[in-house]
Amino acid sequence: MWFVSLIVPLKTSRFNVVRVIDRAIKNVALQCGSSFLLALFPSVIKMYETSHWFREGEPSVYDNAIDWFSNPAVPFQSYFDSAKVLMRVYFFIVPYIISALLVSVALLIPLSLPATIHHGQRPQRIAGSIIRRTFAFPSFLTRVGLPHRVSMGELLGIVAFLILNVGTMFVRVRRSLPRGSRKITFLVDEDDDASREPIDPFSWQACEVWAKTLGVIAILNLGWYLLLPIGKKSVLLEAVGVSWERAVKYHRWVGYYTVLIIVIHSIQYLFIWIHGDGNPSYDLEGEMIQQNMVPWYCSRNDCDEAQARQLRVNIYGFLTLLFIGIMTVFSTPWIRRNKFEWFYYTHHLFIFVFLFICLHYKGAIIYLIPGIAVYAVDKLMALVSYLRTAPAKTRMLSSTVVEISFEIRHDVTYEAGDYIFLNVPEVSFLEWHPFSLTSAPSVDGNKVFFHLKDSGSWTKKVIEAAAKKDDGTLHVRLDGFYGANDVHNQLQNKHGAVLIGGGIGITPMISLALEMCQTNTMPVTLFWVVRTIEEFGIFSSEFAEAQLRYKHFEVKVWITLSMPESGNNDGCLLKSEVLELNNFDRVEYILRSVTPLKQVDKLEQKPSRSRVFRMNEPGIQGAFNAMVMCFSMVLALIAFAFTTKTFQHEKYSSVVQDKVSLVELCMVCSFVIIWIGLVIVIVRPLVDYYVQKFKATGENIDATVSFLEMTEHQSKCSSYENEEEEIEDGGAKTEHEILQSMIIGNVGLRPNFAIEFDSIAQKVLKVNALAKTDSTVEIGVLACGPAQMVKSINSICNVPSTSRSWLERDQQVFFSFTEEDWEW
Question: Where in the sequence is the signal peptide annotated (predicted)?
Fold first, then answer.
């Protein structure tokens, strides 16, 4: 689809050729190159490499590949004594290196051409609506780790993953069964001719083939699908355009699925040993169970090296299963949300999991190298930030909500809708929690702030710690910025935007709404559902000021009165008293109640200047990060190749495979850690210095461009305001009247989103008709809040709109819904 985005924006301008080439290079390099190689190629080639199609024939494709990789001219050929190992290096490691390089190059190319709305694309809009439509899981399934909701796009992704994953299992079994029992380990026929006969698909020998296949698939999943994409700044996420918060959700899905595979793999081998124990065809001595499961068997019996090695391999497998079992138990939703430190500590057992996997299976390191290299860069470079604390300003907005603010340097950037991770050492040294930013970069400049609400033991302690500070400062650690992943740009490409939040879930919507109002002219509507009057008072003044500033911004608030107010335990009595009043008196009662809070909010507090954002401080940010990960994978590969060549020497011929695997893993990790140390101490400071120097020379140009853009934006805003005045004359003028208009008729009630969306559609259609644009209108919808509210919105959006009451003549409106997913 990249070439479509090149053709549409062609206009008569002397900069068009440069801009089109710019967009072409970026899209080709990033989308076609990186996404394919990084997300698809290794998985597809693994399925093909392990299949019978690759191995059968005279000569087979496998034979030709081995001949090619036996050529001394192939890089690294002299380091590996096996062409098969070298082939897998090129199939399963080199593609990730190339992809990281492409991502880095693509991110270095500035995308100067703004995204363009493509009108009249009804088929694409319908397809997009279908892909974004979500489905709810039953509550009893969500309690055991399944997601609350899953979109059609995610279901398609799951199907694609399972086709590759499960397909690899079946093609490997299909290739292995005809080779006979001579290729398995335990249930081997002693007669040589019988061992070459094809294995019966419904036999214990076939069960052993399946058991080994499941083990290989589990290792592949651990390396490619669990370790590689879980870093907050993983190059994989950069390439395929998946935000980290969604990657965490997929991480859990793949994790539970992989644990199930490992458990089945272990149970199968257990039953194989039980079946083979004493079987005259496989184990005349009747010691198969002891030989494979009793750790001290070889110390009490005569074992050859092969038997001792097999016993150690099995013990490594049992230890892997033990550590994975502990991690899985402590990753369940209840423990993760209520005992986060338990989850955090036990999840670091993954280090031992990968150690024992490498000892358990000789070829595991090839599948783990990309993930180890990328994850180490992500964690160790961020560790520099984690070791420092910085003071942040705090402001109590209510008894349960605190605002935390800080300043960033002008060369540190973030996007509307981003989030950060917060750690408060005096509350918990290890516990990190994500919070959406409330600030908008174009509106608030270098002041960044977000809000915490008392929603658990950790947040309660943070609020208590903030309330005790006389100077209004709290020492924190911050890690960011993350998220959004182009959500802001996607919303700006619509004809209008509807942002919906429940309670404190409104914070990312505030950031996005203000940013869009500042940089765009389309209608922006914000719906906020709160349970108490006190909650409404937190942001009521900010909303009123925003509506006074932006004529194309509208806020509607529903105060359900479904919870007691602070200091008033009898919520039912308060609700009945308020509902006895007429609509006007209800509104005045509420506005009188929030006035004291509003006055407190007006107190100015200068935020502290924070320098804890190491990952996003000046530099080339994503490009630099991708390049560091690229070189990290290269050095990990060099370490692996060097170690392999070293153990080819005759003097190391007696070294057991366990030690070889251990040294390989240690060398890979050592090379990566040394490289990251050099980056932190030498490379990063040099890059920052030269980037700052380069930026200084371009400040005058940037200032000129910014002035021209600002002039153009002001012109657009003026034009839009004139159009809106033609549509609706008059309106709320004072802050008090705006607050009245927000909540009038919405006290003690919940929103009827169908009616509200009808009203928005009519308004946007009128604006669209005045602008004489295309008859097809697309309105972006973003929601964050209770599951029932999100379900109600989803039932209205992402469906063809031919039956909607607000269709007029040939006009058609699409509500394109995206759910803010915070399921960690």
Answer: none
Which range, of 10-24, 272-286, 346-360, 638-652, averages the lowest pLDDT? 10-24
Final residue before a domain boundary, out of 116, 148, 169: 116
* 94 Cβ contact list (under 8 Å, min separation 6): 637
Burial of 701: CB neighbours in 10 Å, binned 0-12, 13-18, 19+: exposed
Distance CA 438, CA 419 (A): 9
| Closest C-alpha among 89, 216, 223 to residue 643 | 89
Residue with tokens 């980037």: 691
Q: Give yes or no for residue 334 having a pLDDT over 90.
A: no
Cβ pair 733, 588 in contact under 8 A: no
One-letter amino acid identity for 710? M
The one-letter amino acid code at 621 reads Q
Using alpha carbons only, give the angle 250, 378, 363 rounded to the nearest 5 degrees: 70
DSSP 532: S
Q: What pTM does this model have?
A: 0.78
Check residues 771 and 8 and name the one with the higher pLDDT.
771
Q: Can you list the alpha helix ranges (DSSP code H) found in 227-304?
A: 235-240, 244-276, 288-293, 297-300
Q: Which amino acid belongs to residue 195?
A: S
In a domain, 577, yes or no: yes
Q: Looking at the domain assignment, is residue 680 inside a domain?
A: no
3-state secondary structure of 817: strand
* pLDDT recorded at residue 783: 81
Q: pLDDT for 458-495, tens place per residue? A: 888 898 888 888 788 888 888 778 775 567 777 777 88
Number of continuous H segments (helices) and E segments (strands) in the chain: 34, 14
Give CA separation, 210 vs 162, 172, 289, 823, in Å.
Answer: 17, 9, 19, 34
Among 113-122, 274-283, 584-593, name the one with the lowest average pLDDT. 113-122
Mean pLDDT of 630-659: 91
Residue 767 covered by a domain? yes
| Contact residues for 449 (Cβ-Cβ < 8 A; gap 6+) | 403, 404, 405, 406, 437, 438, 439, 607
In a domain, 272, yes or no: no
Range of the domain at 14: 1-116
According to the model, what pLDDT value does residue 135 have? 67
User: CA quadruple 574, 577, 582, 584: dihedral positive or negative?
Assistant: negative
Q: What is the mean pLDDT of the chain?
A: 78
Strand pairing report for 447-453 and 401-407: antiparallel
Residue ending a domain, choose from 116, 142, 161: 116
Cα gap 741→1, rounded to integer Å: 44
37: confidence class by pLDDT, cuts 50, 70, 90? low
Cα distances (Å, whole numbers) of residue 190 to 197, 272, 286, 511, 649: 12, 17, 15, 71, 34
Six token digits for residue 517: 């109002």
Residues facing 436 on adjacent strands: 419
Q: Domain count of the chain?
A: 2
Mean predicted confidence (pLDDT) in 759-782: 71
Q: Is the pLDDT of residue 25 over 60?
A: no
Euclidean distance between CA atoms 447 and 412, whole angstroms: 11
Residue 622 near residue 107 (C-beta atoms within 8 A): yes
Specify the CATH number for the domain of residue 469. 3.40.50.80
What is the model's pLDDT at position 167? 93
